[in-house]
Amino acid sequence: MFIGHFTEEPWQHPEWKEEWGSGQLVSNKEYIPELGAQLYNRYIDEKIYAEEMGFDGLMINEHHSAAFCMNQVANVQAAILARVTKKAKILLLGNILPIHDDPLWLAEQLAMIDLISYGRLIPGVVRGGGAETFPHNAPPHHNRERFEEAHDFLIKTWTTPGPFRWEGKHYHYRYVNPWAVPLQKPHPPIWVPGTASRETVQWAANHRYPYIMLGSTLEATKEMYDVYYDTSAEQGFEAGPQNLGFMFWLHVEETQKKAEEVGRKLTEGVRSPFDPGVHNVPPWLMGPPGHTSREARARTRRLLAADSKGRPQTGARASFEGQIASKGMIVGTPDTVVPQIREILEYLRPGIIIFRTGDGAMTHEEQMRTLKLMGEEVMPRLREIGTELGLPGPDEVDPMTAKPLAAAAT
Known about the structure:
- The chain is an alpha/beta fold.
- It has a single domain (about 1-70, about 190-410), classed as TIM Barrel (Alpha-Beta Barrel), CATH 3.20.20.
- About 40% of the residues lie in helices and about 15% in strands.
- It is built from 14 helices and eleven strands.
- The protein has helices at about 35-50, 75-85, 105-115, 130-135, 145-160, 200-205, 220-235, 255-265, 285, 295-305, 320-325, 335-350, 365-390, 405-410, and strands at about 1-5, 55-60, 90-95, 120-125, 165, 170-175, 190-195, 210-215, 245-250, 330, 350-355.
- Strands 1, 2, 3, 4, 7, 8, 9, 10 and 11 form a nine-stranded parallel beta sheet that branches.
- Helix 12 crosses helix 13 (about 365-390).
- The longest helix has 26 residues, at about 365-390.
- The two termini are about 15 Å apart.
């Protein structure tokens, strides 16, 4: 089983006004460069420590023009981690393909990161939301087309000797011949994160890419897993746990009381529009015209347990109490969290789990403390459970072929 670590890397400042919510549409005049410098280095330090504690992967993502995610250019941090870490996979979930007008430059960046890390890069790809579309002036009605064409271009660039010409609908190159190509062959493994897009799940299944469900309810996640399995079966392929993942919040302390006290901070401070406790972002920003179909928006509301007005009921945008009740968040001691995580593993059977920690108003010291307990007391037990339940990760069974990997066998 593959175990990853993730933090949204939020802006943290005690004078942040509640009405500013997640920071979208808030002027960057409120930005404090000195604080930004401290936070960037803090989050990198925490990832280095997460590797030391035994996490298999360090997940990073990016959002734009918003305070809830300081990692605005994930490839910059990925390049740093490529050099300062030694074992953990660098899990990009992921690059927002439709906002790139020059995917050749992106292919070159990722190839360099894979080389510097000696082949530890997992370059996830995403469509992104309206919050990314607007700042980068990307046409929302071409979002999926640009996503798919940019993906196809990346794969060809990494696997086809140049020079060659590319004449697509959205991208045109007379000369494609990057000098640096990835270390991993035929190309670095691609993973796909998401929330509730049936189309994206089907696309990932058709490519046999691992699909990671992010912070949804267990029932919604199970439904999307079934879509993946059904789509794979239609293609004559039997997918398994190595093809599916789940991310949820976890905070561990030495006492239950302390865990509940500190864990509540995960739902405080600057919040993502997809997280609990924030004011709703204007619909025109989250879903600009043409970006997402009406059917997909309705399905998202249902799967994420929101009512017709977008108000949280359970799941990713619920209160702290709602998160605990729906198992979107688990807080406790090592002895109390392991049985709860086991229930999730038994129900969903993912080969990939990613723990989201250190978010909201949580301090560096609190984050380091939970990482230590997770590494020393939680993850060893979970690996035993994963073996017992037969939940191989993509580093044990190839998601593309469903065959055991020789490296894992040795």
